[in-house]
User: Which sequence fits this backbone?
């Protein structure tokens, strides 16, 4: 019987895992980010998805190679997958100060977005809302944006098609919100279980890892 999909989220500094797990392509991409906070979030998200996959597969996360396929831009862009388990659905997302990841059989999509302060972001609403969709503030708007982004990562929607596609539950939706206003949406083929990053680290035997700086 297939295992339940796994999802997790954390602040970058909570992802206690060594950057040595990253591939040269991932390191190069992280190094191109100008802001340290963005580099830390990128690295932490790529480590967290390995922790989730290791829990799902029963392997050590340091043995997993995260790759991406894109026929236009080449390596390091596009849909993520594991070299050791190319059929496993994997997804990751990061916003400044928070990262999340999900893995499971079939299609998997996860997105994290921070709720902006102030009045409704009309420009974003014009990109996200389909005919008939209404929101009263940024929290509702960002929740809808994260849900649709998760569908994009599952390959069921495109950015161009977002305005013309009302949100409809597809698969199973798992959501949570952080105390500092980050909304997370996870869409999977089967109900996902959310694990804490501490649970993932303990399961993988993090006591033996040698932690280094998150680049």
Assistant:
């Amino acid at each position: 019987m297939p295992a339940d999909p796994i999802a997790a989220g954390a602040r970058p500094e909570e992802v206690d895992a060594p950057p040595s797990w990253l591939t040269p392509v991932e390191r190069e991409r992280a190094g191109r980010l100008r802001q340290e906070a963005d580099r830390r979030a990128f690295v932490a998200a790529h480590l967290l998805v390995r922790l989730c996959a290791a829990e799902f597969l029963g392997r050590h996360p340091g043995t997993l190679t995260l790759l991406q396929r894109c026929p236009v831009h080449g390596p390091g862009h596009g849909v993520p997958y594991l070299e050791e388990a190319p059929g496993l659905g994997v997804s990751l997302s990061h916003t400044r100060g928070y990262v999340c990841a999900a893995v499971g059989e079939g299609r998997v999509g996860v997105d994290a977005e921070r709720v902006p302060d102030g009045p409704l972001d009309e420009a974003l609403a014009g990109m996200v809302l389909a005919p008939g969709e209404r929101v009263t503030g940024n929290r509702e708007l960002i929740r809808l944006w994260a849900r649709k982004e998760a569908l994009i990562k599952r390959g069921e929607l495109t950015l161009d098609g977002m305005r013309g596609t009302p949100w409809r539950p597809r698969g199973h939706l798992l959501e949570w919100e952080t105390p500092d206003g980050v909304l997370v949406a996870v869409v999977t083929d089967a109900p996902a279980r959310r694990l804490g990053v501490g649970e993932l680290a303990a399961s993988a035997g993090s006591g033996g890892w040698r932690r280094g700086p998150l680049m």
User: Anything to note?
Assistant: The mean pLDDT is 90.
